[in-house]
Q: What sequence folds into this?
């Protein structure tokens, strides 16, 4: 193979990868549109929505608590010495709070929920597909994408911001315990949060959480609906749901951070 | 119901090659044939769970392929379907499974009325008192009976059964046949049953169509089936008899 052929095949491989990525992304967008636009036109179950709220929200509390508390503490461990050395100990609380509310809380909560709930949604819907339960819904004259997808997407979009606020509070608590135990006065910690954290930071973090909630449920449901036959197909759909969910959360986090907080904002 | 010259292809595999039949109101028909001959695909075409490639499916006087979303929903709600594995909703109890179409298809709000209807239909299929059981706690025959109850609870005009006796022991299979026959007579529903069980087909249906390799190769009444010398009928029937005697089946 000549040098130019190798270059061409490399470029075409990249092109194929980009097309495949856009194809998958397109599937997710179409699925989310169909599921959400059908909310007002088609029947869905309020009971299912409440169940999903419980699964996504209450079911994730322990994992979010542990992840957030230790992340807050680790951030305090990593920053406290440096800040004290440069005489900036008064700002430690605000810096930890800013990092948490803008980045760590929405992203970590998103990743935790994508791993726990996204996998479970994809497996459940995949199993419904291979056991003809989705066909049964259609046979009853229901729109299966709305009936199954909408409560999951809506519940994720509601619970992710709630969990993010919870993660922020727990993370701050973790950082606070470490910092106060190492000699910083509690009122200094609190005051620096008041000075550095703006309501806009909180809104930005919550907007990110809302988008991540949409991503997690859309990817999980869409993969469940596309699951191949048998246990293997369901397993593969579950893996794809977690992998794509995580990748899209991290990718969108960059763009949202740039949009919301970039340019010195 | 009328199916005219239905064709369907999945990738390179031509599953249906011009299937035609008609079913009058209150009539029962068995669509028989060996595994993989396209029987279930016909059921899925009737429900438009898959799109037809060529030909027409008319349900209650309307062309299914031309129905818009609202019409399709309305058509589907006049049909009860029993899927091969039952397709019961795993996370719901038997009672909730059977009540499901009442709440979500008919929009019934009166819980007491739903509960009474569920009790009535479960009694009709011989499962009184099973409301609180989960699908995972049921035997294969019980699952089929729950699926039949769920399909009939909102009084459809047409019942589609996909292999209702598959995977069941002969005694339970005959119980299911008797149940279908009884419900057909009680509720006067049309029945289209896809099966490869000759005993079921002869016992339940008013007419039989035999499919092979995507085509209907023979059609007639159960009496005509008994008397038929058609090679397709003989091959299908003798194949089963040969299996029972442990003999080889001629290709």
A:
């Amino acid at each position: 193979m000549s040098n130019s052929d190798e270059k061409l095949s490399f470029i075409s491989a990249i092109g194929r990868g980009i097309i495949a990525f856009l194809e998958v992304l397109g599937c997710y967008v179409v699925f989310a549109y169909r599921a959400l636009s059908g909310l007002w036109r088609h029947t869905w179950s309020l009971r299912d929505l409440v169940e999903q709220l419980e699964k996504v929200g209450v079911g994730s509390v322990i994992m979010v608590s542990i992840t957030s508390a230790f992340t807050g503490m680790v951030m305090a461990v990593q920053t406290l010495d440096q800040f004290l050395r440069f005489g900036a100990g008064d700002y430690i609380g605000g810096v930890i709070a800013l990092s948490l509310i803008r980045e760590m809380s929405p992203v970590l909560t998103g990743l935790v929920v994508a791993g726990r709930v996204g996998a479970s949604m994809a497996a459940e819907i995949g199993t419904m597909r291979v056991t003809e339960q989705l066909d049964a819904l259609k046979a009853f004259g229901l729109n299966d994408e709305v009936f199954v997808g909408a409560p999951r997407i809506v519940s994720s979009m509601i619970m992710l911001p709630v969990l993010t606020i919870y993660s922020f509070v727990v993370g701050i608590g973790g950082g606070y315990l470490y910092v106060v135990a190492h000699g910083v006065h509690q009122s200094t910690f609190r005051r620096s949060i008041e000075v550095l954290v703006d309501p806009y930071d909180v809104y930005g973090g919550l907007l990110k959480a809302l988008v991540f909630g949409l991503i997690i449920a859309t990817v999980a449901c869409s993969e469940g609906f596309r699951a191949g036959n048998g246990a293997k197909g369901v397993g593969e759909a579950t893996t794809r749901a977690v992998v794509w969910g995580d990748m899209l959360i991290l990718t969108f986090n960059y763009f949202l951070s740039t949009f919301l907080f970039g340019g010195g904002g | 119901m009328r199916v005219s010259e239905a064709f369907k292809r999945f990738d390179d595999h031509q599953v249906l090659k011009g299937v035609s039949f008609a079913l009058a109101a209150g009539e029962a028909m068995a669509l028989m044939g060996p595994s993989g001959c396209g029987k279930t695909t016909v059921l899925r075409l009737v429900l438009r769970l898959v799109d037809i490639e060529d030909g027409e499916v008319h349900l209650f006087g309307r062309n299914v392929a031309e129905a818009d979303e609202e019409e399709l929903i309305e058509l589907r709600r006049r049909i009860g379907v029993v899927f091969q594995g039952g397709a019961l909703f795993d996370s719901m109890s038997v009672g909730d499974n059977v009540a499901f179409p009442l709440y979500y298809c008919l929009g019934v709000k009166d819980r007491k009325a739903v509960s009474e209807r569920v009790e009535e239909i479960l009694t009709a299929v011989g499962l009184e008192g099973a409301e609180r059981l989960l699908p995972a706690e049921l035997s294969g025959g019980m699952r089929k009976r729950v699926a039949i109850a769920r399909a009939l609870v909102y009084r459809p005009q047409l019942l589609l059964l996909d292999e209702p006796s598959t995977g069941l022991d002969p005694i339970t299979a005959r119980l299911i046949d008797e149940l279908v026959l009884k419900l057909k007579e009680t509720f006067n529903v049309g029945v289209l049953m896809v099966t490869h069980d000759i005993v079921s087909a002869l016992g339940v249906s008013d007419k039989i169509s035999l499919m092979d390799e995507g085509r209907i190769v023979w059609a007639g009444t159960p009496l005509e089936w008994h008397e038929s010398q058609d090679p397709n009928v003989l091959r299908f029937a003798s194949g089963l008899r040969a299996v029972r005697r442990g003999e080889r089946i001629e290709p």
About this structure: Residues 170-187 of chain B form the longest helix (18 residues).
